[in-house]
Design brief:
Blueprint (H helix, E strand, L loop, with lengths): L10 H9 L5 E5 L2 E5 L10 E3 L4 E4 L3 E11 L5 E10 L6 E5 L4 E5 L4 E10 L7 E11 L5 E12 L8 E9 L2 E2 L4 E10 L5 E9 L6 E3 L5 E7 L4 E10 L6 E12 L5 E12 L9 E7 L4 E3 L3 E10 L5 E10 L5 E3 L4 E7 L4 E10 L6 E13 L4 E13 L1 H6 L13 E9 L3 E2 L3 E10 L6 E10 L6 H4 L4 E3 L5 E7 L4 E10 L6 E13 L4 E13 L4 E3 L7 E3 L4 E9 L5 E10 L1 E3 L3 E7 L4 E10 L3 E12 L5 E13 L20 H25 L6 H4 L4 H14 L5
């Protein structure tokens, strides 16, 4: 730790000592005259720094070091001067002695403590720094000496990172629905041996399209956390209205500094469960449609107005409305034919107006205008439906041009599906539904009769079932329907009861409605209309039965386990299990992921009731179906929790066992100690008979052993 001391005396001083002849020399030492001849040795002082040479200091603080200077020589050290100097070019500290550098005199084996101040006011970059203590002094004859020692200052806490713990993080409520909010709470605890400075908790990975901050700031200042101290934080969060169900990560970031000024950044992901809304998704419909009345001439604008309404339970997003005439040569748009609505909340509506006009190519008849609506609901799946309106166009010029043509080719009556509604709106595979149709004769003068209607699938598919057109099967009827007649501008309503085959794939099917009919003169016509039918598969998650104990003790753990199966025909997405209730549970939420059709798995959880009495506990399974909607299945129980039964020997009001110790265990332990003590005593007593034995080595005598025997006899029969 210290450098070898270098002692120096001048050449003249050494020769003066050698050249003293046999004359007597008077030497004054502490006022006493000593007579000595030339062979008299006055001794040599030897100054040094005592101790191990390592001193601990703290950063950003003025540290006081007690430096002990000693003289281990055999002569007095006079005029002792000590100086401190850093070996660093630009040290992050300043050095100073409180009482100056002059120590004075040190007698033989004398010592003096100096106060060295080390002011750490910089940014140290290493754990320790050397400091050189140099000193000069003289002996009683005036000879000069010098030397030096090296000490080290060690920075407290350098390279020792403060330990931390993210604790008690939870979301209230545990699961959020789209468009709702909650509060994320937790705490940070300093579990190490170093102070945490400028501690701050920051939320990351927040987006306006997912989980966002609903108020306040995205960071919480905790300040200084001393050893064992904790700081709490909370963040109000909200989910967007069109979020799909699932688990979304939120990054909780902890920033802090140690006492050296070194910065740290730690992160931990917390998953927030967005459960979605059970049942229907957003459902966009067109209502309160105002069709043009009367008759419009060529190039005469006419408006069509309606309300776009969300009859569902979550917001619809990216809504696109497209308006077009089914005969684009006869009816054309005079306003934007495509409109976009970013979002429409549940129960909200938005007015829509589209303007059209008839062209010179239009005949005097009723023309159908089609409105196609596309939107997403809580995910990426696009929902589509169509609705129609009609307008009467008058174009005498076009009618006159056609007088020379054959009568049957002039002014054809046309049948369209002016409106259709599925009940329910989302059709489930393997179930029945009602298809309500409104059929309209668009001609203003000619009626139609002998109407035949039948249904077919419009698209080519890979499924043999779908190719056969048997996805939708009429209930208690054939696939062909007949109507006697529809008068000019007249409508007829028809309700069809259809059944969806169980193995139908979840998607939107295009159903073709085919018409064959005649006019009053017996001219035959055909027409067809396209309908979009949204089909979803029934999802099924079956769980085996499991039993809960009828009664149990407080703080007694309960383990529940069961098998579960996907018995449906489509995959289940984001399968989760969670425990609700006033119980301690090591893992309240368990994320399983996706399950293919026919897959099975095993679930086990252990929880402990905290309260006495009737304690409700629920095991909840949740998953997403093919449409992205979240479905929950609950198993609700009520536990009858009683007070813990006290072990034998413990009276009322006894303290709960700590660290596994009970009164019974303590009594047993005392008994074991007594038995061991008696055994040792008997062993020593036997050894006394052997003079070289153990008893003799322990200096036992007969009287002591006899006294012990008497005491042992007195104790016989006493209860332990």
């Amino acid at each position: 730790m210290r450098n070898n001391r270098v002692e120096e005396r001048t050449y003249e001083e050494e020769n003066v000592e050698k050249c003293i002849c046999h004359d007597f020399v008077s030497i004054y030492i502490d006022g006493v005259v000593i007579m000595a001849d030339d062979n008299f040795d006055i001794g040599t002082p030897q100054v040094f720094v005592a101790g191990d040479g390592v001193y601990e200091v703290e950063n950003n603080k003025e540290n006081r070091l007690n430096i002990q200077i000693k003289n281990k020589g055999d002569a007095i050290a006079d005029n002792v001067v000590v100086r401190a100097k850093s070996e660093e070019a630009m040290p992050p500290f300043k050095l100073s002695f409180s009482d100056g550098e002059n120590v004075g005199s040190l007698g033989v084996n004398g010592a003096k403590t100096l106060k060295l101040y080390v002011n750490m006011n910089g940014s140290p970059d290493k754990a320790s720094y050397p400091i050189t203590l140099s000193y000069t002094y003289k002996d009683p004859m005036g000879s000069s000496y010098s030397g030096s020692d090296t000490i080290y200052i060690k920075l407290k806490g350098f390279d020792r990172e403060p330990s931390y713990l993210f604790d008690q993080m939870q979301m209230k409520p545990e699961s959020l629905s789209p468009g709702t909010g909650g509060v994320l709470t937790g705490r940070v605890k300093n579990t190490g041996s170093q102070i945490m400075y400028q501690a701050e908790v920051v939320l990351d990975k927040l987006t306006t399209e997912g989980i966002s901050l609903s108020g306040g700031f995205s960071s919480v200042q905790l300040g200084t956390l001393n050893i064992g101290q904790e700081g709490k934080f909370s963040f109000p969060l909200a989910t967007s209205a069109d979020m799909a169900a699932g688990n979304y990560p939120v990054t909780v970031k902890l920033k802090y500094m140690d006492e050296m000024g070194k910065e740290y950044e730690k992160t931990q992901d917390y998953y927030i469960n967005v459960g979605g809304v059970s049942g229907k998704a957003s459902q966009i419909i067109i209502r309160n449609m105002k069709e043009p009345t009367g008759t419009y001439g060529v190039n005469q604008n006419f408006p069509i107005q309606f309300e776009l309404y969300n009859a569902g339970q979550v917001a619809a997003k990216d809504i696109i409305i497209t308006a077009e005439g089914l005969d684009p040569s006869a009816v054309v748009p005079k306003s934007s034919s495509v409109k976009n609505v970013m979002s429409l909340a549940p129960g909200a509506s938005m007015p829509m107006t589209f303007t059209f006009a008839g062209t010179n190519q239009a005949s005097s008849q009723n023309y159908a205008i089609q409105f196609t609506v596309e939107y997403t609901s809580g995910g990426t799946k696009v929902n589509t439906f169509k609705q129609y309106a009609g307008v009467n166009i008058s174009n005498p010029k076009k009618d006159k041009e056609g007088e020379s043509e054959d009568d049957k080719n002039k002014s054809k009556p046309k049948i369209i599906v002016s409106k259709y509604v599925c009940d329910p709106l989302i059709v489930m595979a393997g179930e029945e539904f009602d298809l309500n149709l409104s059929l309209m004769n668009t001609h203003k003068d000619k009626g139609v009769k002998n109407i035949k209607m039948f249904l077919t699938l419009a698209e080519e598919t890979s499924s043999e079932t779908e190719k056969s057109g048997n996805i939708f099967t009429p209930v208690n009827s054939s696939n062909t329907y007949y109507f006697d007649a529809i008068p000019p501008k007249g409508t007829v309503d028809k309700e069809l009861r259809l059944y969806v085959v169980p193995n139908a794939q979840p998607k939107t099917y295009t159903l073709t409605v085919n018409f064959e009919y005649e006019d009053a003169e017996g001219n035959e016509y055909t027409a067809k209309e396209l309908l979009g039918i949204n089909v979803e598969q029934v999802t099924e998650l079956n769980m085996d039965d499991f039993a809960m104990p009828e009664s149990m003790e407080q703080y007694m753990p309960v383990t529940v386990s069961f098998n579960y199966y996907n018995t449906g025909k489509v995959a289940l997405n984001n399968v989760m299990f969670k425990v609700e209730g006033d119980v301690d549970c090591s893992q309240r939420s368990t994320y399983v992921g996706n399950m293919d059709p026919g897959a099975s798995d095993y679930y086990e959880v252990t929880f402990t009731p905290n309260t006495i009495g009737e304690v409700p506990v629920s095991i909840i399974a949740s998953y997403e179906d093919a449409s992205g909607e979240t479905i929950e299945q609950r198993r609700d129980y009520v536990l009858n929790v009683t007070e813990p039964v006290m072990p034998e020997g413990e009276g009322e009001g006894a303290e709960p066992p700590q660290n596994g110790l009970t009164m019974k265990n303590i009594i047993i332990g005392i008994g074991v100690v007594v038995i061991l003590g008696m055994g040792l005593f008997l062993f020593i007593r036997r050894q006394k008979k052997d003079p070289d034995g153990f008893a003799e080595s322990m200096d036992f005598d007969d009287e002591e052993l006899e006294d012990d025997d008497e005491d042992d006899d007195d104790k016989e029969g006493m209860p332990l």
